[in-house]
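Before going further, learn to read the protein records used in this course. Taken together, the tokens spell out the fold as the letters spell out the chain. A record is reproduced here so that you can trace the correspondence yourselves:

***
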Amino acid sequence: MSKTVRKTFPVQGMGCAACVARVENTIKGQNGVSACSVSLASNTAQVDYDPGVVTAADLQKAVRDAGYDLIVVDGDEDGDEAADEAERASQDSYRALVRDTRLAVTLAVLLMILSMGFKTYPGVLAACLAAVAVFWCGRRFLSTAWRQARHRSASMDTLVALSILISFFFSLFNLLFPGVWTRRGLEPHLYFESGAMIVAFILIGRVLMARAQRGTTAAIRALAGLQPRQVDIRVGDVFSVRPGDRIAADGVVVSGSSYVDESLLTGEPVAVFKQAGDKVYTGTMNQKGSFDVRAEKVGRETMLSAIVRMVKEAQGSKARIQTTVDKVAAVFVPVIIGISLVTLLCWVLLSPTDGLTRGLMAMVSVLVIACPCSLGLATPTALIAGIGNGARKGILVQDADALQVAGTLDTVILDKTGTLTEGRPAVTDAFWYTASEEERRANRAILLALELRSEHPLAMAVVSFLRAERMDEEVPEAEISSFETLPGSGIAGYCRGMRFYAGREAAEPSVYAERWQKEGKSLVYFSGEEGLIAVFALTDRVKEGSAEAVSLLHQQGIRTVLLTGDNAASAERVAAETGIGTVRAGVLPLEKEEYVRRLQEEGHKVAMVGDGINDSAALSRADLSIAMGRGSDLAIHTAMATVVSSDLRKVPQLIRLSKKTGRIVRENLFWAFFYNVLAVPVAAGVLYPVNGFLLNPMVAAACMALSSVCVVANSLRLRRA
């Protein structure tokens, strides 16, 4: 039985928001396609489809029939080869664009010199130069417009094609048949330089826009560039990592130690110390030491590959606001063509003497200055830059909606274990009742030998503490006999003929134990036949940065809630250390989900931050779900955003990034709409009756190109956010 899959395909030939709407509607119209999101900024189509009903080749044929191209490579499950092919094609296309732009600028300058520097205008030479500029340098506009016209659609290329063809053929008519105008007492003007200038300015704009757009996707290229190529490592293999090497597979260190730079995965600038038993990840950089790694995940299964796929999908997704913009863009080009025709008609009717000439120039200006490109780029370029910025900082956003929602939050719910705390117990306090240091060292060796035989998490914490305490000591290992596990109580064994016990039960009261117990800490007692020897307090330590993260959230006006299944004493201790005001302890997983729902019904925008399976229901219910990257796979797959390093300070960073991205999107949309609302009437000539101003088509082309570049440049500010 077939099932729906999601794939991202590179798309070629799109130039504006109308192209996006055309490609998207074409794909959505195919049987078996359940969802489709096309991005102009990344030139990709993210498609959810049933391979049993429609194949990738069928989608490619449909898109090609619509006048565009969908890059598909047979047998390429994750689209990596298609992306590589699209990147090569994009590079070739960019180089051709640069060549055509240089030629178009040269021709336009020559035509300007001819039109202004000679008393007798060399019309035939000008016509030849203009023909090269229009039909060769501008061929991409003409061919795309022709393909779309055959399919009864239109785009930005249609507007450009109409404007340069009208300028050229009107000038050619005046050159070949000047008598038509001279018999009416009018001078036949030539506008060959206008068509060439329009082509040159628009090509310059596209070159600048292509360069700027590459900046918005720099993060995904940086991550993808870390993936090893053609590495012959299989799961289970042990491979060596030398100083300066990038690690070639996800795995576990089996011997050796070193510091590893994981900044491009986690966003943390400080290298992490790795030793036997620690996990390492593909693409991270080893520092000065050497170690051996047993491979656990290779190729497309590694964390780096998963992150690249996640970021690609997120950058190809759409925010809700983009849907409205797409609807406007879908009708934008036909409306502009209608306005240009009305402009021509008004000039002919209101100015009988030279209305046709002025009307045609005004019509060309309207066609050129209207800019659906800026509308189409306003939202996706900002979102792509914002998502890429987050990825560089170790914040992975599943889709554009998640980035948009983060800026609207007023409540953040935090799980305790693994989110606010380290997720593993550690000894925080210890008291020895033995008098002499020699006796204490002997008892420490006995307790260490006992705990090493236990598999309990608290035992592991005690072992780590004892080893750290005696790091510089040389203590003979104690020999334990008759070791036994006491279910629910602890462990016991004999050493030198005496019985020793470690566990929950106390041989006698302890004032230290009573105080630590009130603080919500777990206790481990160590006793012998003569009584209590030592008592240890253990707790799940609060992570470094948790208190700072809560403080930053409060500074942003966001309420924080601690929601945990642990006991009240432990929850209150963590809340007191971090500054969280509201605590709900002893909560079951379904009760967590119910609490989130209740807050939403009260009108709150809620984020849930967690890392365990017990958080999954609440994560699914929340307006924004954030998983800690070192938590359970289920929590990570359920969440809308993931903090790779599990550093809680990334949460207020995500919210700040969301607000900044939202502000950039609003700025882009304002200027895109404002530009078109203001520019189109001016190009049509509404100022002519007032002050005699009529916009030159060449100036209109420059303004149109500049508007798109400004929108993309504004989005690039997010790279430094």
Observations:
- The domain at 5-89 is CATH 3.30.70.100 (Alpha-Beta Plaits).
- The first strand starts at residue 5 and ends at 12.
